[in-house]
Fold:
Amino acid sequence: MRQYILRRLALAVPTLFLVSVIVFGLMRLMPGDVATRMVEGHGYAKTLDALRRDLGLDRPVHVQYVEWIGNIVLHGDFGRSYWTRQPILEEFVRRFPVTLELALLTILVSVVIGVVVGILSAVRQDSVSDYVGRILAILALSIPYFGLAVVVVVVPSIYFKWTPVWTYVAFTADPLQNLKIMLVPALVFGVTRAGPIMRIMRSALLDVLRQEYIRTAWSKGLSERTIVLRHALKNAMIPVISLIGLQMPLYIGGSVIIESIFRLPGVGLFFFEALGKLDYPVVQSVNLIIAAMVVGLNLAIDLSYAFLDPRIRYR
Amino acid sequence: MHRRLALALFLPLVLALATQAAEAQTPKRGGVLRIAEREAPGLDPHLTISFLSHSYVSLTYSQLVRFPNGPEQKHPADFSILPDLAEKWTVSKDGKVYTFALRKGVRFHNKPPVNGREVTAEDVKYSLERFAAKSGFNTRFEPVGAIEAVDRHTVRITLKEPYAPFLNHLANPSFCVILPREAEEKFKDFNHPDAVIGTGPFVMKSYEKGVKVVFERNPDYFMKGLPYLDGVVIEITPDAAARVAVLRAGKADLPHIWGWVSPEEGKALQKTNPEMVVTPHQVIGQGFIYMRTDQPPFNDVRVRRAVSLAIDRKAWNEALLFGEGCVDSGPVPCALKEWKLDAAKIDPARAKYLTGYDPAEAKKLLAEAGQAKGFTTPIFHWPGYVVPWRSYYELAAENLGKIGITAELKPEEYGKYISTTALGKYEKMAMGPSTPFTEVDDFLYGRFYPELPTNQSRVADAELSKMLLAQRREMDPKKRKQIVDDIQRYLADKAYYVYVPQWPQYVAHPPAVKGFLHHDGYGLGMRLVYTWLDR
Structure:
């Protein structure tokens, strides 16, 4: 197990190196130039050259790369934004809890809905509740979350002069107010993400319920509740957990629109705005940090399988 | 008898109403104005050209001179020059030496490291030189020779040549705010919220990134008794639909840094929230088709005239702008009233190439130019501009198709558009809006003088260039206006740019917001000096 973890961590290094090179390269390949973008064509050559020198863009690309990655590896310095000239890590650390909280609440909402409806659907296969559950899942899958978010924000403002948009307050400052602010976005995001979980839950559970150890459990005269919740569910959760793991980057990416509409100061918006402004260091560093997190998270998910199914061994 | 009775009954009512009206007109002190707006990309006024950045920090800074606002302004495009930090100024007879006498005893905000020190001529020199060195707008200062601090309260600016637009540029809140040197020394630039230290009506109290910016009244502001507001909060709201939603829900007083909403949103607001104050303004703005006039086929004036005659501006105005737009939108924008020469005042035979619609003549002109079979051209553009633009591109392509020009829409990513196409680096044809400048020189010299990056149509017309230089060197406003009129007459049938209709912006706020008058001069601080809350 320990060896497995060490090997996985060692493998993460080339992965992250590749990510850094690709992101760095892609940013430079993007059409347009950040200095011109900053002055939108109002500046003339002299100003632009000074600006480029100021931002370090006048040096060869490989020097820029080595400096960026070198500062991260050697000093933990993720650089500064071209636009605000403020340290990136500082802003990331300030914003990350917002996105993390939104992601966790979203997962909570989507898992609770997806798993419960999935179980009901599987246990009562081909009954009315199964059909209702499946229709709801398809419906949730087909509503785009950004559309739902706009409807939830705009419609009550027109008819009730009320809107679920508040000024963000950190959880540490006022937990209740914070949860009140996060609830609606998490519900909107979670409901639309519950669909795939419900479908995977249902099919995995159906699969497990047909296995022989379940038949044995039935023949021992155990109650349906015990069989489903204690014997079948744990094994059926493995694909569901994998799916959540796979969707994790989606929660970060998708949070851009949710954060923008519900004015939550998260990482998604920071990243997205930086992309539009060609703020290379922000895009590169945030990408690298998130890539490192996804690598770590995947490892954690792989390790969690052992807890769910002790037969799984790591070598 | 009846009359007396009526008088006895009505007099108190009339008196009561009169007192109420008087009360309503007396500004109340206090209250915090809440604005829903996107985050500004930075706070240093010289390191960004974003109107958002400039509007944010305009609450905190002053300039040497400024534009009128609130009760001072005659109309939203009133760009007369008022004293700000400079109490008075003189201009030498040859128009080359400006001497400004600073107001005495004006202090910077009481924040470290400046700690309420008095503003001096050295600060003015430092700030203007920093603008000339760093700002993306610094072409405005090309004619400036030397900036000297003559004594503690006198600044002398010597120009290389007479330059009529100079005071307007000094008054523009996007350009020449006065900054304290110590803040740059401590914070490297003016991006850090703690470095935002000015002499303006409000003090930046706190800035929670991505959440809100809090401003409080500057208790030592040099305009006594102003501002009325205790403070201003900008709540960062990136999404446009959410900004209008918070306005409707009473959680914001302005849905945009200047209170702007689109005509569609404005009309919808009037229906759903009849209590809301919604006022349309013809703002300075301009959109055009630009062409490589240095290359075939657009080097032939007949082809350019054909393009202009193909555009059915009235139909666009009806279909997209509720008929409220201005179809005579160039070369000087409709809202720049003091400089605009209406097409109606120009010989109709020439003016038709500015505003006319005549596809039959357009075809004839193309045939004369040897393009009877038509030709194919791309229209480079950025599809992300505000609402009517996407339809504009399509309508332009459709209109051109009717006279035999096959236009292929070529959308570009913003970074590429703004750093290539918008700087005149494109093939054949492109389309987009202009920055709403405050000085007519930017719409004339900036757009038509050879070799400038803002001369997107690559115009090189010796006769025109002579007039362009003459108007910026003419210090007598009346004579300058005559030259500007001549330029507009001259340009009418050249069709170097083909102008498309300009729409009004709607300014929306709840009825409790009083004294908030729209002004086209960027910034926000001075608008809020006269704004008060009736609640």
Remarks:
- DSSP finds 17 helices and 20 strands in chain B.
- The longest strand of chain B covers residues 144-151.
- The first helix of chain B runs from residue 2 to 25.
